[in-house]
């Protein structure tokens, strides 16, 4: 309510009371004149006396001042406070208004006739009857004239009550109804009866009866109306007379008791309270079961409402915290005696738990009006888990960012047009640009022209939704250098299927590519000469034979063997031999046609594949190469050496069935050239098979291949005895070929052919695998034995043998120290570097190594310093003649002493007699092996159960 409305209400309030006060004496004296109780002269005399007007004016002034002061506190309250209940002082002031109002009218009603008659000659005592009539008349007029002002004043106070509030009923509807429906009509009837009485100077019985009937009817109707009103108000009165506050559930039971507006209003209130009760229950359920803490505070920041979620959050009970400052719980949101600041959106802050620990929470503060009071609702949620998750996410993002930024692989993204939008720091190592320099540039700026079309197809496939995996391409860096890159990429789409961006990774595989090329080169080329190696040549030969069978184009195969290589290698040393091989390789490479294939087949052997050359041209081509070698001079240390070659040739035509066949033809022809005196060319002729038994090699090679394929080789074991004790724990593993007719072929019969035709590595691997398998079974059976396994002279060249041994030991769990590998001294000396590496690898695994046939290369012991062998097997040629030749004894003694000085054990081979065994014991040789100790057998020999081959063991021990 604004100031203008308050001023208008103030004026109406005063005007209503003032008009009633003025009308009361005027109408009272006026009715006295009409009733002939007063005359005009008396009125003039009374007024002229001045007492009555002065008193009336004084009463009017008093009334105006009094009621202005009366209403002023109410107006001031409404002006200061827009809501809330007024104080008890104002409520008491409001309750005494009827008394003060009607008391003033009573004073005027009593004072007016008294002062009027007192102002006339003779005074009041001269006219007692007139005074009584005027007094009665004035009282009736006062009630009737004051009633409008009273109702106007109550209306004004009622408008103020909307802001003041009511503690109780101040003016009941029954009293209003009694005044209007009962008292006013009765006074009106009484005034009329008084008029007739004064006019007629008497009242007959009929008139009194009429007055009584009217009075009775009026009172009856008024009482019936009051009863009806009481019935209508009964539900409300029941609520008003209850002790304590009524709940919505109680008020919801209000039911109408009448058909008038009050009944309808009562029914509406009942429905309203039922709805309010439902809403209150709903809101209480929401508040009580809410996951968030709900705290309601007043304008001073004191807590009014504290739901269960808030209790669990802060550790306080509602009864404990209600009325306490919000600053206890949320010091950053509210201060002492202040309301919390409104937060239009969720804010994060720190609360305080009952135990004093800080509590990360989120809060939203809103304002609401409740019963004209401003309240603040705080929705508080525990964000401990969220903060922990956010911290973890931030940490994860930081780790991911660190990983991405420090990754050696390129991490990138680009737009659908192919322009870079993000690159990590790896781009500098690949492209030489910083990420900022590359961002926004197009992919095509870095592509190599030869890969542009392939890259474009891959890019279109990505845009079509295909994931790119390990797409290899070549890009240019800042300096124009090429980098081989492997890309992984995928596109990201929106809901409409449009490509948003493309992301992926890339790895610089330039070194890997170079390494692969190097491995490929090494797998196909000889490390010394740079020519193609035997493996690649055989593959190409197979392809050539297949092409010839299809199209009939003839080719020639030349097998070239140097005639003087062994002499130069033995006399000038291995370095000179290697230099010779390199020069010969260059000589051949510079004189073959482009497209022809030259290879180092092994040792001092070369193979040459000449395309589109038939039976007529092949001999002439071979002769040209022979003459080329014949004219060549090898120079070393200022000396020159003639180097010639023997060339075996074979033509590849439709009659050739396989690469092995034509290779054997060329090999056989080369051997025929060597047999014929060297430095010559010989072409394969089927009649050569009958010469010098050369065809035997091919037969043996076929049989070796068959034995390998059908797993038909046989292992036998020869015991190795301890010379001092006679105990046998070691066995040498030997291989035999068992033919279909039962004949047993020793290694000397088939090993040369296996070596010549490239089967020796397969034989080595077969022997090693079977020996390890057999030793594993024996050890599982509890037999404490060890094996010594022979390897061929070509074992150093087999790059798969060592990995196979490692894999076999890992699979079986066999202790590597139970295995000893043997290789001949001459094989080790021939390739000392490879032997040292090979033996070192076996020693690293944990295996032992023995040098077989020691003494056959007795020219120098110096190489023993470089070979980390464990045992030396003294060559049997020295051991066999010990009993008869003192020189052999001296040789054996010397070798044994040198071996022991180097910390190596010795094994004497070919121990064929007891006399030899005694000498070995005398010289301090560690172990003995030979037919006298035990012959090779398929099963292990238990010496204790055999005939006394070692009958003097007891004597030897002594």
UniProtKB/TrEMBL annotation:
Residues 469-521 form the PAC domain. Coiled coil: none annotated. Residues 697-950 form the EAL domain. Residues 553-686 form the GGDEF domain. It holds the Pfam family PAS_4. Gene3D superfamilies: 3.30.70.270, EAL domain, PAS domain. One of its GO terms (molecular function) is catalytic activity. Its cofactor is Mg(2+). The chain crosses the membrane at residues 12-35, 47-67, 101-120, 132-157, 177-196. It comes from the Bacteria. Residues 279-337, 396-466 form the PAS domain. Signal peptide: none annotated. Keywords: Membrane, Transmembrane, Transmembrane helix. This is Signal transduction protein. It comes from Thiohalobacter thiocyanaticus.
